[in-house]
Amino acid sequence: MCQFEIMRGLLNLVPIPGDYVPEGIYRSAFQPKVFINRGGLMWKAVRERFRRFHVDLNVTQSQIDDGVTKAINVGKALERAYTGTASDTPPVFFVGSWGKGTQLRPSADIDIMANFDWSVYQRFEQRANNKQSQLLQEIRESLAGPYPQTEIRADGQVVVIGFNTITVELVPVFRYPNGQFLMPDSNNGGRWKIVDPFAQIALVERVDAKANGNLRALTKMVKLWNREKRTSLKSFVLELLVAEFMDGYVWATRDYFWYDYFVRDFFQFLRAKSGTYLTIPGTGEAYYVGTDWATRVDTAIENALRACYWEYHDYDVTAGQEWQKIFGPRIPIYTA
Predict the structure, then answer these.
(1) What is the pTM of this model?
(2) DSSP character for 174?
(3) Closest Cα to residue 154, out of 176, 181, 174, 130?
(4) pLDDT-flagged residues of the chain (< 70)
(5) Cα separation of 157 and 195, whole Å?
(6) Are residues 185 and 86 in the same domain?
(7) Does 207 lie in the same domain as 113?
(8) I want to staple 333 with a disulfide (CB 3.0 to 4.6 A). Which of 29, 268, 297, 320 is the partner?
C-alpha cells in the first residue's frame, strides 16, 4: 500500500479499558488529517460496512413503482372529481422525503401536494368557521367513491389515504406566481399557510450534487437512527440539518471509507443545534428544533467515538457492535 494512498488522520490513540472512551478522541472535522502507516490496512471494514448499510436503506424499484402509481392514481381521482376528466399527468407532485429522494426503506408514507384552482379557495373563503377543515373533508369525500375499501381521513393539514402497502398523505395547495403555495392547516381553528417545498428540494439537490451523493446517503442513515430511538425530531428537520452540515463539511465529497467520520461528526454538529431555530428555505420561517432529543444524541456520539476507535484498530466486529447501538441491526457487524 502506498504510504499516502489513504489520508485518514491521527487519532489520539491510547488503550481503552472496558468501555472507556479516550479523552480527546473526538477531533473537529476541520482539523487536518495525517496518514499513519502501520504497515498494513487501517479502517479495513469501514468502506464495505457503510456501503452495505446504504444499499439496505434504499427503497427498491418495485416499492418506488408502487408508491408513484398510487400517488398518481390519487391525483387522477381528484382531477376527475373537480374537473370531470382525468389526464395522464394530474396536478400532483412529490414533496417530503419522496420529493427529496431521502426516503428510507421501508417507507411508511408518501407525501404529495395537489395543486387546485384558485376558484376552489375562493369558494371556501365564502364559508364560516374552519374553512380549512371543510376543504380537507370535501377532498376526503371525493376520494371515498374511487376507494371504497380504503380508510381515508382528514388530519390537520393532510388527507390520509391508507393503502395496504403504503400510506399517501395529500396536501391540497394553491400555487402563487412566485412558485410558493398556500396550504390549509385545520389545527387550532384553521388558517392558511405559505409553504415552499421546491426550495427545500432545491437545497437537497444542490448540496447532494456538491457532496457526490453523500447527503442523501447520510440522511437515510440519520433517519434510521431517529426511527430506532424514536426522537421528536421531524424528518424534514433532519434533512435540512444534514444539508447544512454537508454543505460546509470538509470531507463531504469522500466515499464510504469516510462514513465513520461522517456519522461521528454529524452527531456532534447535531448536538450543537439543541435549543436553536432552523430557518426553513423559501419562506424563512424560524422553526424551533427543541431539546428533548439531545440526550439521545449524546449517547450516539459516545457510541460513534468508540466505533471509530475500533475501526481504526481494525477490530471490525467490535466496531460493528458499537454502530449497532446507534443504528440497530441493519448496519452489519461482519463485513468479510
Answers:
(1) 0.87
(2) E
(3) 130
(4) 1-41
(5) 12
(6) yes
(7) no
(8) 320
Neighbour tally for 127: CB within 10 Å: 10
Taking Cα atoms as reference points, which of 199, 170, 171, 195 lies closest to residue 182?
A: 195
Reported as a single tens digit per residue, the pLDDT across 230-280 is 999 999 999 999 999 999 999 999 999 999 999 999 999 999 999 999 999
pLDDT tens, position by position, 85-96: 999 999 999 999
Provide the pairing of β-strand 286-288 with 277-279: antiparallel
Cα 52 to Cα 36: distance, rounded to the nearest angstrom: 27
- The per-residue DSSP string of 74-130 comes to HHHHHHHHHHS---SS-SEEE-HHHHHT---SSP-EEEEEEEPPHHHHHHHHTS-S-
Count how many domains the chain has.
Answer: 2
Cα separations (Å) of 279 from 157, 158, 200, 237, 287? 21, 23, 11, 10, 6
Do 65 and 161 belong together in one domain? yes
Report which secondary-structure segment, H or E, holds 200: helix 197-210
Q: How many other C-beta atoms can be found within 10 angstroms of the C-beta atom of residue 66? A: 17
Largest CA distance in the chain: 78
Domain membership flag for residue 296: yes
CB 161 within 8 A of CB 150: yes
Among 177, 195, 213, which residue terminates a domain? 195
Distance CA 161, CA 163 (A): 6
Q: Is 157 strand, coil or helix?
A: coil
For residue 18, is it left (φ>0), alpha (ψ between -120 and 50) or beta? Answer: left
| Consecutive H or E run containing 239 | helix 235-248
pLDDT in tens, 32-49: 344 444 344 678 999 999
